[in-house]
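Objective 1b: paired records.
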Amino acid sequence: MAIDAANTTTASQRRTGYRFNLTGWISLIVILAWALIAILAPYVTPHGISDIVDTDYFGPMSLQFPLGTDYLGRDMLSRILFGARYTVGISLAATLIACSIGVTLGMAAAVTGGWFDTALSRFIDALSSIPSKLFALVAVAGVGSSIPVLMLILGIIYTPGSYRFARALAVNVNTADFVTVARLRGEKLSYLIRAEILPNIIGPVLADVGLRFVFIVLLLSGLSFLGLGVQPPEADWGSLVRENIGGLPFGSPAVMAPSFAIASLTIAVNMLIDNLPQKIRDRSA
């Protein structure tokens, strides 16, 4: 019976091409839960995010306020649920900007080669030589801290890393025989990128997208903690830590809860990425 169960599991894995262990499933559930909360935040918050619902600031956890209250007596559960909308939304948008631009340019440079590859790579190297936090601080201080600006700045900061990663993968695929045959057939650059290069690097690229997302979440939270991220009356998780830092000596959940929210999301994404290489090996086999 044990042998039959093992054979059934193996057959299922061969059919799907994916192998999730318990850690992978838990991580996926956490990520999907935060994504769902970010979408449905206005409908699931028990109180208004700006409503003062308690006369006691830095109130303790209770049945009425499961995560306590903040420095003004506002419900922390409501503010964290709504803060997910900004943390997840801005980070996801910036990740898509960085990875779509970086991966596209990386594949184009690898396939085209020559002066285009050299010039673009040197420009990317110059851009990546600027420390990310310094670039973000200067750009936000100079341009402003609106949500579209944050998305664009964070996307620009992590485009070079995505470019270098995609180019390194595409250079190897570009030397394959099937790419040479497609080039001899007279296929255009767009076809080579879309049909020949991208399908063969999509697994590692998806893993890199997850890493970029984690980096952007942490950088966004750091900017908000310094007061240069999401501005009041909106608040992301980094802003919630900053505005409630005065409750740290009291062990207030108002400062610990958003920190745990950041940790839960980033750790879940990292642990899910750790499961991706096994999935890729199974699929390629």
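Objective 1b, second protein:
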Amino acid sequence: MLLHNNVTELILLGLTQDPAKKKIIFVLFLFFYLCTLVGNLLIIITIKTSQTLGSPMYFFLFYLSLSDTCFSTSIAPRMIVDALLKNNTISFNECLFQVFSLHFFGCLEIFILVLMAADRYVAICKPLHYTTIMSRRVCSILVTVAWVGSCVHSSVQIILALSLPFCGPNVIDHYLCDLQPLLKLACADTYVINLLLVSNSGAICTVSFVMLMFSYVIILHSLRNHSAEGRRKALSTCISHIIVVILFFGPCIFIYTRPATTFPMDKMIAVFYTIGTPLFNPLIYTLRNAEVKNAMRKLWSKKVISEY
């Protein structure tokens, strides 16, 4: 617990205080969350059981779906339950845990997307050296580094939160705990902390986004030398990745790269990357990927045959 901290619990106002709208939110986001779980778990099971999805791209996709599942689970269940309650309170320690998990799995998703872009770059631009550069050992090391880096990033968020005194009030105008809403409750000057937040979360989002878009520009430019079939397949994969990147990084950059001011639209924009991205990722990667769809069909047919 914090030194000079008089706040033991916080009140989350959620997306709305209207009882009728809260019921709609409950039904809508319960549906979204269940679809997110089903879609991502289906990808995880398919990749783990399929013999045809053994390439590094699907190795990284497995961890992307895993991080999506955990990322959504760190936010959605409490948001759904709170929609049924009149008083949405959360203990200060639970709030810090949500901050940690939100940033841990969010940062992990960013790093995995960077690794997926690197994988596509090597596969398309250096195909002769692909198996050597992106070996299973190298991929495992890269994913381990991503996990460690995410842990360091989220630990920094907690350290920043613990450095602030909280004397009251204890009302957060949001549906989740994050460092920015907490800064508004601190009874101290938060200018330096906000600069550290922007230089940490904001820098990770912005630098990663620029790197990703630059790498995909290089990849798309290099496709002109490929055959029509190879170009079509690579283009389909890259477009899927670019859609995911824009959906995830657009809202993140808006939230984390500005001074500590809040706008009425912040909560709805946060919905895009906390609820929307984990929901859309399975759809984007399955609907645009023939190999994943074929592997899912084989998995389903094996399941049906085994039942009879």
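Strands lie at 9-12, 89-91, 171-172. The chain has a mean pLDDT of 85.
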